[in-house]
Design brief:
Layout lengths: L12 E3 L37 H8 L1 H4 L8 H11 L5 E3 L8 E4 L10 E5 L3 E7 L2 E5 L5 E8 L2 E8 L7 E7 L5 E4 L5 E4 L5 E5 L3 E4 L7 E6 L2 E6 L8 E4 L1 E3 L2 E3 L1 H4 L10 H10 L20 E2 L2 E2 L7 E2 L2 E5 L5 E5 L10 E8 L5 E8 L6 H25 L10
Antiparallel strand pairs: 1-24, 2-3, 3-4, 4-9, 5-6, 6-7, 7-8, 8-16, 8-17, 9-15, 10-11, 11-12, 12-17, 13-16, 14-15, 18-25, 19-22, 20-21, 22-23, 23-24, 24-25
Length: about 400
Amino acid sequence: MPRSLHRPSRRTLLAGAALVALTGGVLIATPAAAAPPGQSADSAQPAPSIHDPVALLEALAPELLDETLPPLDAVGRAELARQTGATPFELRLPAEAGEALHLAPAETEGAGLPVSIAVNGARGAAREAQGISWFDGADDASAAYLQPVRDGVRLLTALADASAGEQSSYDFALPEGSYPTVLPTGDTLLSDASHHYIGTLAAPWARDASGRSLPTTYSWSGSTLTQHVELEGARFPVLLDPLWLYSYDYSTSSTGWSVNHPKASENAVSRLLHGCFNCYFPIFGAPRSYPVDGEILPLSVTPFTWTATAAPVKAQTANGGALQFLALDGHFDGAGSLITFSWYNDPSGYLHLYVHAMVRKDNGPAINLINSRAAGANWLLYWKRVADSATGSGGGGGV
């Protein structure tokens, strides 16, 4: 079960580029426009019932509906494994409220671990609406939606009114000694006692019927995750969610690779990459100087063949000082795709590279998996180059 929270310093080094096969993420979400109080976010009509998940999502968060991606069944997974030679992502949704949902990552370098999650308070048999499974909540004022997405699942709670309360909780089946790490971006990484990455909880999210974002946080009690939301002044209904997904994470504990400096500091990594970015970043077109906000990088990759494919990106700074790369028009993953690389040290001092991607374009299960494996190998090379070369512990930082 999770133990004490580990927070890397706010100078955690983050750099990114949209390159090969940016799987392990979800589609970019654009905030819905606000509507006058008492109305749904996209019309002058009252918001739909919480027992109509598709209509409610269309009213409060229409951008999320496009992310629904029904999981492959056992036959489909077996065929995909035959085509690609790799085990694909697995999501098994429960048929009854008392059952847990089960997830396992695709077979890539830097992959996470299988996990089971139970939705507390859900009742009855699962119902389905356009790929979204849903259950009645603990009372008539709440409902639970399970939305399958690319390499993950969104666990939505819908609140009809204030009587539903200000929290929802989930029981995770985790190895003993597992713990969370909160990155400056707001993502929470779960790791086991040996610091092997399990999976990611995206930053908590909540929205009311006027389109307003509500204050919301996570807390842990043992292996139970609770999402809290502040409902003062909210227009009902309200939606909130943890999003569970699989990205990539690299360290000596997870890769088995031997490197020269397995416990290199964030400062050492910062100095190294500011001294020569493209000496270590394994993508054609990367600059020698560390990228700055607004800089356009003419990256190119070879995702399917040995022919270079354009992957232009723009550097930008995200929450917590994270440097991200945003895919531009002409990028093979789709304009608006986003990737962030986070360097951090775990409680034992080992250096990790965490890669979080959000991808616009869906190339289909086979190409997605092939790209994911190619990307995983690339990021492993990036981590190894840096961990072999980053020395010292003083100065630097401020990325």
